[in-house]
Design brief:
By secondary structure, the protein is α/β, with parallel strands linked by helices. It is built from eleven helices and twelve strands. The chain folds into two domains: 7-173, Response regulator (Rossmann fold, 3-Layer(aba) Sandwich), CATH 3.40.50; 228-350, no CATH class. The chain has helices at residues 40-47, 61-66, 68-82, 96-113, 126-131, 147-162, 170-173, 190-202, 284-288, 296-304, 325-341, and strands at residues 7-13, 31-34, 51-58, 86-93, 116-122, 137-140, 232-237, 241-243, 259-262, 274-276, 310-317, 346-350. Helix 3 (68-82) crosses helix 4 (96-113).
Length: 352
């Protein structure tokens, strides 16, 4: 492809960045508009004469994640019809469902249409772990304030990908590590760089490791319960168990909320009363008997046998499928205070 050709670009954004609305409009169905919409203005400015955003594709985060196969077919048809040289999604920053949608559609466009794609996300966005090995994702900050930094990096890498130019290492191009490893010559041999880092560390000076490790939380174990026969036990799950009909509309993926539900007097979760909202595992068995994920029946038996004091009358639930670390922490911080206030002694946390 000629470097002088003005490339055709299709840009993907969600309902929020399109100015349609927030969560109340998350069910917005896919549509395609000619020209630039929302954050496409920032991309247009940095593309200059090299590329033109001919169309913007818009889809609500809720609609995409809850109607995945339908949404993918609708979007891929729209994108194909626009005949782009490059597809750009986002940036999604730390918006979990938006990030998952960006990664999913980029991966699909590459595989089905053979078109270059690029996106942008905060490193803790669940879309990163899901797609960093398949899609070039520029690292961004965790909010849209970083648009002025993200847009130039996305545009630069996108142009190189569309023109099939050589792509440098992640540290040079700004994308998140995960794609193929690239060899390059550094200023000094490895032993010297290692000693330089060690000397800086010993001197208390800033340095950047060449092999960053995951930053895991260290959580101090809780104190053991002295007498289980007097203990109040609560149930919390990331398995998405909800009352029938999912009254709070907890998302099947990349949840933005959790639910609090009363089980006072409930001894068994039946097919008629409960189900799972989770989109990351086969729901058949959980829908048949939600006790398989949230063991209310077993805890009631232990309560009757006197092996525990009582089962707390409220349980807390969300879907762990693609839910961001940020949202998970916020959920837990909020309902943990409620559990403490209710004098709950211990929590059984179940997953899938």
């Amino acid at each position: 492809m000629s470097a002088t050709k003005k490339l055709r670009v299709v840009h993907y954004i969600n309902q929020f960045y399109a100015g349609i609305g927030g969560e109340e409009k998350a069910d917005h169905k896919p549509e395609i508009r000619e020209g630039v919409v929302g954050p496409g203005v920032a991309l247009k400015a940095v593309f200059g004469n090299d590329a033109e955003i001919t169309h913007t594709v818009i889809c609500g985060d809720g609609y995409f994640n809850e109607n995945l196969e339908t949404a993918k077919k609708e979007l891929i048809s729209m994108i194909k019809g626009a005949n782009p040289d490059l597809f750009v999604a986002g940036p999604a920053f730390n918006a979990g469902r938006y990030g998952v949608a960006c990664g999913t559609i980029c991966d699909l466009v590459q595989k089905e249409l053979g078109i270059a794609t690029v996106s942008g996300m905060y490193r803790e966005n669940p879309g990163v772990d899901m797609y960093k090995k398949d899609v070039y994702i520029i690292e961004t900050n965790n909010s849209a304030v970083d648009m002025k930094n993200a847009a130039p990096k996305m545009a630069k890498l996108g142009l190189k990908l569309a023109r099939k130019e050589e792509i440098g290492a992640s540290i040079e191009e700004g994308y998140l590590p995960g794609m193929s490893r690239i060899n390059f010559f550094d200023y000094a041999r490895g032993s010297k760089r290692a000693v330089d880092m060690l000397l800086k560390k010993l001197a208390g000076q800033p340095f950047v490791t060449e092999y960053p490790m995951p930053d895991f939380d260290r959580v101090e174990p809780g104190k053991p319960i002295k007498d289980m026969k007097k203990a109040t036990i609560a149930l919390v799950t990331s398995g998405g168990i909800v009352p029938k009909g999912n009254p709070d509309h907890i998302e099947s993926s990349s949840a933005s909320k959790y639910g609090e539900y009363d089980i006072k007097g409930v001894n068994d979760l039946t097919e008629k009363t409960h189900e799972t909202a989770h989109g990351g595992y086969d729901p058949l068995y959980a829908n048949q008997d939600s006790d398989r994920v949230l063991p209310v029946d077993v805890l009631r038996d232990l309560e009757k046998e006197g092996k525990i004091g009582k089962l707390h009358n409220l349980f807390y639930t969300t879907t762990g499928n693609g839910t961001s670390i940020k949202n998970s922490r916020e959920f837990a911080a909020e309902f943990a205070q409620k559990l403490v206030a209710a004098k709950v002694d211990a929590v059984i946390l179940t997953s899938t």
